[in-house]
Amino acid sequence: MHAASTSGRSTAPSMRSLARLASKRHQWIVRHRTAAAATDLAAPAGPSAALDDGRSPLPDPASLQLGAPLRSQFPILEQTVNGRPLVYLDNAATSQKPRAVLRALSNCYEEYNSNVHRGVHALSARATQEYEDARAKVAALICASNSREVVITRNATEAINLVANTWGAQNLKPGDEIILSVAEHHANLVPWQLLAVRTGAVLRHVRLTPDRTQLDMDHFRSLLSPRTRLVSLVHVSNVLGCVLDAAYVAERARAVGARLLLDCCQSVPHSALDVGSLGADWIVASSHKFCGPSGVGFLWGKYEVLEQMGPWMGGGEMIQDVFLDHSTFAPPPARFEAGTPAIAEAIGMGAAAEWLQQLGMGRVHDYEQEIGTYLWERLTSLSPRITAYGPPPGDPRSGGRGRASLVAFNVEGLHATDVSTLLDHAGVAVRSGHHCAQPLHRELGVPASARASAYIYNTAAEVDAFVEALKETIQFFDDVHGA
């Protein structure tokens, strides 16, 4: 087996060894599981997931209850994996897609597939309208005052790179400082590292609190200075689950004249956001995290800030007039959307934003606080060998902001990938690895972690199934090691 290393260097197992583990675990379960245990592990079957005919009316999202009643809107959940009902707890990596989004994608290709903008025929006109409607739906989801503040990108990573290569390249000079944190996703580290090399800017990083559960706001405050030009921080950590006090950060950043970018990949899907009250100059998010398609996301920016940013990629769509030796450029957001966009994906993103808004983001947040608390409590009470990362639910330092419905964890003596592989053998999907947050894992003193993350369609019964499968996994390794 592969013990969890604390050296900061991964000791991840090979695929061959993982296959052997899975085979051994299957043999162990056959020998040890009782009929009662098998019943406990089975996730409740939802309503029949008949194929959508594309014509039958879909239910009003506002009329749907979250949890088990919502599952009929997600056909992918109605399957078995390795002979067991699928328990999908990898939502922080990507969410599943409701019928409304699948239908929007299908309708685009079946009814009005065409390139957008400038076409005068009927299909192009409708495709353009649907594409721009999707922009407006995303704007409504985050309470933007104007849809022209929403730039459609490939994902949040591209959105951050866009800001770095436009505003950053135009405004940063040697000695200017960018404040990041040790908890950032690589997408909010690497673009600024590349920019710092080009411009001579200096990177500063907010530490964790002494108990390593959240960002240290005292340290953040100490890093601010007249040299600070940009603060770029994660709104909700994809590992710790902690929620940034964005209003406080924005106030402190403004006090020194710095711009603020927030990585909202883990907050847009799970809470009611109002970009006006966040105080940021930009936020970024990826569609696939909030029930939309992959390959598309968005950058929101204050319009006066977007207007000051020059183009990044050149080509069609982003121009006003092109001459042989120079060009003039369109105003935002078109200025930042060179070439043919991911049309169907953007329309699917809009459908997801509309569906979630109709479902009610307040309801989404409340349900996730409930299921996330249950997940934390069941997991952490299973064994003293389990270390869960981030602040516990109800931590007074969270200021009532709660925590994300995810728990990254390790089991003493076991590698996260071994644990996750055997959970998959039980039909439970969790993520393992560094979750694109290697510096954070170094701060935590581990090379990797496993992560269970719940969403609006997960249930308490599924959490119970996950915990029971984890209990069996730990017992399996104990038996193997003791053999």
UniProtKB/TrEMBL annotation:
The record ties this protein, via Pfam families, to: Aminotran_5
Ranges for region Disordered: 39-61
Question: GO: which molecular function terms?
Answer: cysteine desulfurase activity; pyridoxal phosphate binding
Keyword Protein biosynthesis found: no
Q: Which domain of life is it from?
A: Eukaryota
Q: What GO biological process, any one, is recorded here?
A: cysteine metabolic process
Listed cofactors: pyridoxal 5'-phosphate
According to the UniProt entry, which residue ranges have a biased composition of type Low complexity?
Answer: 39-51
- For this UniProt record, give its keywords in alphabetical order, as a comma-separated list: Pyridoxal phosphate, Transferase
Q: E.C. number, please?
A: 2.8.1.7
Into which EC class is this enzyme placed? transferase
Q: Which residues form the Aminotransferase class V domain?
A: 87-466
Q: Which reaction does it catalyse?
A: (sulfur carrier)-H + L-cysteine = (sulfur carrier)-SH + L-alanine
What this protein is called in its record is cysteine desulfurase
